[in-house]
Write a structure and sequence with these properties.
There is one protein chain. This protein is an alpha+beta fold. 28% of the residues lie in helices and 29% in strands. It has four helices and nine strands, in the order ββββαβαββαββα. The strands form two sheets. The chain has a five-stranded mixed sheet with strand order 1-2-3-5-4. The longest helix has 26 residues. The protein is globular. The protein starts with 13 loop residues before the first strand and ends with a helix.
Length: 237
């Protein structure tokens, strides 16, 4: 039995609420159970210097965890002078995931930054952030089209993410903190609406896992992603 009493293929309750930040061009509050992440997309009229003259835009992300998002207060990274390795890894993952479904030439020489701030963490913050960031990015593009800044929506597909793992010998989906901290295998899957794999991160915390177990986790992930894409469609409708 899972600590949350869920079935192996049962996600936590997921909500996607768009338009929650007044001043951002696009925003979304995403919850995966008790994990809560605020995503805000901001349009910058100037893209990165290394893309100047290419006619190509850029989408990037920044990720942060608020001090009391966890059981004990964590120090703000700004006070240490630089983001941690974990923070850098996650925000690069979010950026890569979004760019995988965006036509960067359709943006023009502009940049969109999606800030993902974890308000409360209970496992799966990076997967929740990717799923909510897509909605915030969609809202930003809709804002730009309404003002004739761009003529077509640069989004080519949905993208969402979910964690899967092997807990007490069984493959399960959408691990909360209790499961994540005790899982024998932990994996994150980023998948598009059409089923394309963007990124797979899998780690054996104890004994190595088999190819059959990996494929079992992938099957769980694909089912979960299909449900998340439906949630995204409902959120932007």
């Amino acid at each position: 039995m899972r600590p949350s009493k869920r079935a192996p293929d049962e996600m936590r309750p997921v909500t996607l609420e768009r338009g929650v930040v007044r001043y951002a061009e696009g925003s979304c509050m995403v919850t995966f159970g008790e994990t809560k992440v605020l995503c805000a997309a901001s349009l910058e009229e100037r893209g990165p210097g290394w893309l100047r003259g290419t006619g190509k835009g850029w989408v990037t992300a920044e990720y942060a965890m608020l001090p009391r998002a966890t059981h004990e207060r964590t120090r703000r990274e700004v006070t240490s002078g630089k983001p941690s390795g974990r923070t850098q890894e996650i925000q690069r993952l979010i950026g890569r995931s979004l760019r995988a479904v965006v036509d960067l030439h359709a943006i023009g020489e502009r940049q969109i930054v999606v800030d993902c701030d974890v308000i409360q963490a209970d496992g799966g913050t990076r997967t929740a952030a990717i799923t909510g960031a897509w909605v915030a990015l969609h809202e930003c593009f809709a804002w730009m089209m309404k003002r004739s800044i761009i003529s077509v929506n640069p989004l080519r597909d949905h993208v969402a993410a979910v964690s899967c793992g092997i807990h007490q010998g069984k493959p399960v989906i959408d691990l909360d903190y209790a499961e994540d901290s005790a899982a024998e295998t932990d994996a994150n899957f980023v998948i598009t609406g059409k089923g394309g794999l963007v990124e797979v991160q899998g780690t054996a915390e104890g004994a190595p896992f088999s190819e059959e177990e990996l494929m079992g986790l992938l099957r769980l992930a694909k089912t979960g992603i299909a449900g998340l894409v439906e949630k995204q469609k409902q959120a932007i409708a």
